[in-house]
């Protein structure tokens, strides 16, 4: 859907996908997706506890966990971390994300397609795209075989019903459904996983901020685990996540837009039909809006009474306009529940004798932190 040209088809598919997400429990209180997310958060905590406070790099565990959340939403099931199909899916996601990043650069600088090695990246990505297709077609076939028209269980069930009924999306096919599912997997795994890794990196790097998070969690929740009902009562926790999305925007450029008419921006004339890509990262580190922008400071998002401040004009981590991120509500749910659950369960610190984690990023389709190790001590 991200690459579909704007028009009636795009509007219908987006509206339909958004409706399905709401039906699956995106709203607070519906409970369906919250249950899946909390289950995965508990599994991640159990996984971290296995390290017994010793140094480890949890990037793989975090990414696998978020992939499982998406699989629960799409397929109605979760995979064991060692499942062969799941490992194949995760490997394909990683390869496609790397390949798409290279393709994005080549689309801006076409001459780079002649640079040695470019075709190898494209070939490797294509092979992994085929693997993704294979996994998704298998799931579509399984869902078609066991489809309960009166009780749709997950995203694929809702989509297959629409393919048969042609009620809300004219001309929707199973191939369209496969590509919609692939979009959700690719967009919903690396982005949220990267944001959580950045949040844990900055929390580890700033013990005083981590202490404030622990104090707020202890005061509001006590020994129980967080739920979405706690979110309004945890402004400092929310501010940490907002500041993470500002200082290290994992998708630094918004999805491509196009001008619908000739327009002039300052001294530049932009003809109708020109592709326009917004630099979200530039906005988020603009000192006009964010003094000392490279300093991690959650209190930027709190007023004098400690309540969350909304800054819509200078804060757009999910893009904007008609192509604003479809999964924004899901991403915010995931980040809150994972971050608050992990901080409720552990204290994160830098391993003895090593410097704090580096805040440089790995440039790709998303901006991810460089590999780093932490020690997670149970609280």
From TrEMBL:
Q: Which domain of life is it from?
A: Eukaryota
Q: Which Pfam families match?
A: p450
List cofactor names only.
heme
Question: Which keywords annotate this record?
Answer: Heme, Iron, Metal-binding, Monooxygenase, Oxidoreductase
Instruction: Tell me yes or no: is Mitochondrion among this UniProt entry's keywords.
Output: no
Task: Enumerate the InterPro entries for this protein.
Answer: Cyt_P450, Cyt_P450_CS, Cyt_P450_E_grp-I, Cyt_P450_sf, Cytochrome_P450_fam2
Q: Which GO terms describe its molecular function?
A: heme binding; iron ion binding; monooxygenase activity; oxidoreductase activity, acting on paired donors, with incorporation or reduction of molecular oxygen
Positions with a binding annotation for heme: 325
According to its UniProt record, which protein family does this protein belong to? Belongs to the cytochrome P450 family.
Its protein name is: Uncharacterized protein
Per the UniProt entry, what species is this protein from, by scientific name? Branchiostoma floridae (Florida lancelet)
């Amino acid at each position: 859907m991200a690459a579909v040209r704007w028009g009636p088809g795009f509007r219908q598919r987006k509206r339909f996908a958004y409706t399905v997400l709401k039906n699956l429990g995106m709203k607070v209180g519906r409970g369906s997706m919250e249950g899946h997310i909390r289950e995965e958060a508990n599994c991640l905590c159990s996984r971290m506890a296995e390290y017994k406070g010793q140094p480890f790099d949890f990037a793989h565990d975090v990414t696998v966990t978020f992939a499982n959340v998406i699989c629960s939403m799409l397929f109605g099931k979760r995979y064991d971390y060692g499942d062969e199909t799941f490992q194949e899916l995760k490997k394909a996601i990683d390869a496609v994300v790397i390949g798409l990043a290279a393709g994005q650069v080549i689309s801006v600088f076409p001459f780079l397609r002649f640079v040695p090695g470019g075709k190898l990246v494209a070939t490797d990505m294509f092979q992994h795209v085929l693997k993704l297709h294979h996994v998704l077609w298998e799931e579509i076939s399984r869902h078609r075989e066991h489809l309960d028209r009166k009780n749709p269980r997950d995203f694929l069930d809702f989509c297959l019903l629409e393919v048969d009924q042609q009620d809300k999306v004219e001309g929707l096919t199973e191939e369209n459904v496969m590509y919609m599912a692939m979009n959700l997997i690719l967009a919903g795994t690396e982005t949220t996983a990267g944001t959580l890794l950045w949040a844990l990196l900055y929390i580890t790097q700033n013990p005083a901020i981590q202490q404030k998070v622990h104090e707020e969690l202890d005061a509001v929740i006590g020994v129980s685990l967080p739920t979405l009902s706690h979110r309004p009562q945890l402004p400092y926790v929310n501010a940490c996540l907002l500041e993470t999305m500002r200082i290290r925007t994992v998708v630094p450029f918004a999805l491509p837009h196009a001008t619908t008419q000739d327009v002039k921006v300052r001294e530049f004339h932009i003809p109708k039909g020109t592709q326009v890509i917004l630099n979200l990262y530039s906005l988020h580190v603009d000192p006009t809006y964010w003094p000392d922008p490279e300093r991690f400071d959650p209190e930027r998002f709190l007023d004098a009474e400690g309540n969350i401040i909304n800054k819509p004009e200078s804060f757009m981590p999910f893009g904007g306009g008609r192509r604003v991120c479809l999964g924004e509500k899901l991403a915010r749910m995931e980040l809150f529940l994972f971050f608050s659950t992990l901080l409720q369960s552990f204290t994160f610190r830098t391993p003895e004798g090593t410097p704090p984690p580096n805040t440089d990023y790995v440039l790709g389709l998303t901006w991810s932190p460089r590999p780093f190790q932490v020690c997670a001590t149970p609280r």
